[in-house]
């Protein structure tokens, strides 16, 4: 049975804030990013609580969507029209054999890294070119999102390999 793991989604949705606090810290990439983005300390001052709350809400969307990128069994469910209750025998045989296959931190991290590199990078680069931003700006933001998605995907996919606090034996 393929289900969305809402605890994994919730845990992964915190990652963009955590990695952002580190990645955009002035001693890491924050100072360079602000310069490349055309921001100043003055412009950055103000009420950030709304930004943080909305970031978590949007991160919930990202984490929810990552399930469909990294949990391949959703593809099998999609092939039968998404109705698991009325699935045929071949679907149930497939799920019996492969239902927990490829459920690990590493697998989720790999597919999420590929999403960052092959999807997020082009999107950010296209926007940056039209906004006349530098490649440094592009690479700082792409690096952040690729790292963030990699960790989020690892958490979501790896969570399936846990039963409480014990690793589930996989094929």
Automatic annotation (TrEMBL):
It holds the Pfam family DUF1761. The chain crosses the membrane at residues 6-25, 46-70, 109-130, 142-162. Keywords: Membrane, Transmembrane, Transmembrane helix. InterPro entries: DUF1761. This is DUF1761 domain-containing protein. It comes from Chryseobacterium takakiae.
């Amino acid at each position: 049975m393929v289900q969305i793991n809402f605890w994994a989604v919730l845990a992964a949705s915190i990652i963009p804030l955590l990695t952002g606090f580190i990645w955009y810290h002035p001693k890491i990439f924050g100072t360079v990013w602000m310069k490349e983005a055309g921001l100043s300390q003055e412009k950055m001052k103000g009420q950030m609580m709304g930004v943080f709350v909305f970031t978590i809400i949007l991160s919930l969307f990202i984490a929810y969507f990552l399930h469909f990128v990294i949990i391949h069994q959703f593809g099998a469910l999609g092939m039968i029209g998404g109705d698991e209750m009325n699935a045929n025998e071949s679907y149930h045989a497939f799920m019996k054999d492969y239902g927990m296959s490829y459920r690990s931190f590493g697998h989720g991290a790999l597919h999420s890294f590929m999403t960052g590199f092959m999807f997020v990078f082009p999107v950010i680069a296209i926007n940056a070119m039209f906004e006349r931003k530098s490649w440094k700006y592009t690479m700082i933001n792409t690096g952040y999102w690729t790292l963030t998605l990699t960790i989020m995907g690892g958490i979501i996919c790896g969570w399936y390999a846990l039963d409480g606090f014990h690793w589930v034996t996989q094929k």
